[in-house]
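Ticket opened by: R.M.
Priority: normal
Category: complex prediction / small molecule

The reporter submitted a protein together with flavin-adenine dinucleotide and asked that the result be attached to this ticket for the collaborator who will pick it up next week. Submitted input follows.
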Amino acid sequence: MSEQFKPNIVAFLCNWCTYAGADLAGTSRIQYPANVKIIRVMCSGRVNPLYVVNALQQGADGVLISGCHPGDCHYMEGNFYARRRLKLLKELLEFTGVDPRRFNMSWVSASEGHKWKEVVEKAVEDAIAAGPFDQFRRRQIGW
Amino acid sequence: MTEKPKLGVYICHCGINIAATVDVEAVTEFAQSLPNVVVARNYSYMCSDPGQLLIKDDIQESGLNRVVVASCSPRMHEPTFRKALQEAGLNPYYLEMANIREQDSWVHQDREEATAKAKELVAAAVAKVRLLEPLTPREVDAEPAALIIGAGIAGIQAALDIGDAGFKVYLVEQSPSVGGRMAQLDKTFPTLDCSACILTPKMVDVANHPNIELLAYSEVEEVSGFVGNFDVKVRKKARYVDVSKCTGCGDCAEACRVAGRFPNEFEEGMGKRGAIYLPFPQAVPAKYTIDPERCLFLTRGRCGKSPKCVDACQPGAIDFEQKDEIVTFKVGAIIVATGFDVFDAAKKPEYGYTEFPNVITGLEMERLVSASGPTGGEILVDNGEEQIVPKEIAFIQCVGSRDQSVGNEYCSRVCCMYTAKQAHLIKDKIPDAKVKVYYIDVRAFGKGFEEFYDRVRREGIRYVRGNPSEIFKRGNKLIVKVEDTLTATPLEDEFDLVVLAVGLEPRADDRKTIDLLRLSQSPDRFLMEAHPKLRPVDTASDGIFLAGCCQGPKDIPDTVAQAKGAAASALIPLARGKVSIDAQVAGVIEDTCRGCGFCVSICPYTAIELVEINRMGHMVEVARVNEALCKGCGSCSAGCLSNSIQPKSFRDRQILPQIAALGGIK
Ligand SMILES: Cc1cc2nc3c(=O)[nH]c(=O)nc-3n(C[C@H](O)[C@H](O)[C@H](O)COP(=O)(O)OP(=O)(O)OC[C@H]3O[C@@H](n4cnc5c(N)ncnc54)[C@H](O)[C@@H]3O)c2cc1C
Ligand code: SF4
Ligand code: SF4
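Result attached by the on-call engineer:
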């Protein structure tokens, strides 16, 4: 952690809005930190809250979930489910002593390449502030 | 499924798009070291024919059964590589892509970091692809019919094309007549054909076409289903007139006790109508309608001794007992053609539109010059004191367009030209009139537009470059305050009439269509196409298309061209008679399903139901997915407490290895 701690962040993006927005950031050559690695899912509603725990267990220092703006979900209401579930999860993580800054959630549409950059930068900043994560690692929880 | 995975990993250079930032050799070497990887190669353009051939040859020669392509976004080329797999005899769903261009080489500059990230993304794809399952897209029958919402020129043209191709069309128009805005126009730029003369025959054609069912004065209430199989529910509003008896004679309208009392919407409020009315003489269907908010009998329960329209109507068509009617039908494709609103000039108070009767909008001008308009085509205005024939006339362009202060950054594309047209028509009718046009730029981009603009200037119309700041009254004249920006001269010019060339806006009531069909809006609030260049008539939802000004401002030729494009696209599923539905849908593991029904309540498409099965002699309830309705979002899965319902290609056991690969703990 001596010079600059480079956190490892796993992101779950919905196919229709944020994944497309991240593609647009690419097409527009918007530069952002390389710490965030993306897993594509069809809808943010697909993200099982346990994925977040699993990612932290597997070596991530932070997790980012992003989907369509509320009301704009390609599947009508998937992102509302995501929002409710993940809000609970965030509280639960905090309760178990996990720094809530490790977990970010955002809404980025297909036309918001710039917003995606900001979201990544914030997630990285937050994870740096929270420091390297190893609380869960000793006890591997079987899936 | 039991055969051992044999992977091929292909890393694309994309010319230098990827290779300049990512060390493709290093990534290839790394890929080679991953479990189950049989071949790893890199190539300049994987999507090219020789690139695809590399994959196909390896599948056939080395017996690959899984493929990873690390290249551009899967949103770009997933279909391309799926097809390559299929052509080599492998199930197309045995493919996983690593996005190392849009989400790596293009967004990072540090070669070391970008290469490291590419390796991780490849490792995640390799981890997932090993656990993918073969899927087969299914085909279902498509209903050979189309729904078109809105019967302006866009909806009319699309309906005629689909009807002529031999398919059934339901054309739904919310107002009493078809025709839309074009019916309100007098002449049309740049050729000056009379709008009614070219539109009316088409309006009559849609009403008489054997394949077109016109549902005028109707609204779409519900749409469910998917491409090929939409269920539609339409409310036909009560006209209180039996259309099978109404002959369109108009005796009722003349007799109406409140005839001529209310502003006529078609005349932009300048003409008057009664409670029973025909919006305009050429209306189709040519049937009268009672306005339920204006009719004395409908609002107060009585109209004199007896309603005058009832007494006047010989065929006895008036029916106060009539109720709204619900019609339901199935279609395979939908075209949205709901058109536009004009900008509300009251939002620019400095132009005094609500204050001065002789400040009018371009659409009002259309009615004023029209021979069928409220003044019979005579240009007469009220200057606050008397009705006069205006001699000094100003046009102000870009009112409500290219104007951040009212939230419309875009150009409305028709105002420059309709201003030129109207200026010409005024000169025609009042030869000694002095006409000035205040403009920011003149955009005369279409076929024949520049020529028309030149002609109008030669006719003596003065173009002054400047954006007026204010209109006020001095004596009985209107004063336009403006700076001529070419000569830097402040001016205060006098006029009898000012025409505001108002722009085009998204319809205020489009919200209900957006919610009904889950459409998206572009930043300008018009309806959004699937791709601004390559899919201009498609929406993000399969089987739903856009035509006309609902998608953005355009003139009639562009509207008609887009309508024909939308019709051709909508005809694809109808003509094929089949649509393929995505194979990446949810499936239930019946052995572990507890039958709690959680997923049933989550699914936004009501694709899941509980069914009884026999599990080792016990009848139990389990969830079952209707694959035709499931869109594969996976929301059900995240809610299931026993992990029993899983979207194919996005199962827990396919995503968790990806997480592990990216997490990096061995
Ligand atoms: C002042 C003015 C002058 C113009 N002059 C010219 C010209 O000279 N030449 C030229 O080429 N272009 C001209 N235009 C542009 C032209 O009017 C448009 O290109 C054309 O009308 C677009 O047709 P449309 O079918 O897309 O929309 P519209 O004409 O707006 O038709 C849409 C129809 O859909 C119906 N509708 C809306 N919502 C629903 C719903 N939810 N359910 C059912 N029905 C619905 C509406 O009632 C309407 O009938 C002019 C425009 C203006 C404002
Ligand atoms: S994947 Fe989505 S659409 Fe399919 S059954 Fe589950 S919740 Fe419904
Ligand atoms: S699939 Fe899961 S959520 Fe759905 S009924 Fe079965 S156990 Fe319940």
